[in-house]
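Troubleshooting: if your tokenizer reports a length mismatch, compare your output against this known-good record of 336 residues.
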Amino acid sequence: MKKVLVTGAAGFIGAHLCQRLRAIGVEVHGLDNLNDYYSVQLKRDRMAALAAGDGFSHLPLDIADRQAMEELFEKNQYDVVVNLAAQAGVRYSLINPHSYVDTNIAGFVNLLEGCRHSGVKHFVYASSSSVYGANTNMPFSTHNNVDHPVSLYAASKKANELMAHAYSHLFGLPSTGLRFFTVYGPWGRPDMALFLFTKAIVAGEPINVFNHGNMERDFTYIDDIVEGVFRVMHKAPSPNPDWHGDAPDPATSYCPWRVYNIGNNAKEKLLRYIEVLEKCLGKTAKKNMLPLQPGDVPATYADVDDLVRDFDYKPATTIDDGIARFIAWYKKYFAI
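Known-good structure output:
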């Protein structure tokens, strides 16, 4: 693995992954159009940290730009492509659905086509725990069907898995989808709960606690996510010889295609998460208790048995450690 393309390189997970790859001498092309869905300055600061060393090149492109993607793959031969570029956010999909189609669907096809025509050895892409939608059988297993999404964002991620399967079937493109579970940590997204809560508590403002606090999430620390992605990148999937069409396994296939969960394999109550944050900040939060929002699910919980079996890896960072590290970064970044 000498040359890798990482899309969404200025994003939360993308920037951390690029740092990890560059540290072992991989030539990394980091593609990101620096859109304004959230703070462009935060994205620029992540990129500035990456640009401080050798082995990283920023490509200011949009994966939805078909011509630009065709030219990129014509000029470069990548061993692995990791797609972390996406229009993120469950609630935002209620406001601007077309942005999800442009990036998560059309942009994804452009990457599949680029991989297909340039002989990429392994296409790894971010899916999401949101694909489990209305499923309530926990922990969520990749071997269960996920046909009932409750947001357009979730539907677009499920579509990615299906589209990747079609290319694995038709063209033998090895592809691995990774369902991430509630990622948090330093350099995190400002639209995610931990960042929003911290900002509000520091300012003495109330935080919005949805579902009246009865939310449970499988919070997964950023370093654990990156380690999982890193290991998966090194091992392209093989066809499952035991797969049968009369009893199809949703997690595997007769072609080189797989999906895995990457989560902490532990449900944490949102109120417990807030308690740890309050302890780290030394301040008590004022809470607005609100109903469950459209598109949200009350709980997530990852079954990671396949990840352990195939990659000898299981995320293990506790929220106590992870939140403390986030707060240390937050105070330094904002000079508090």
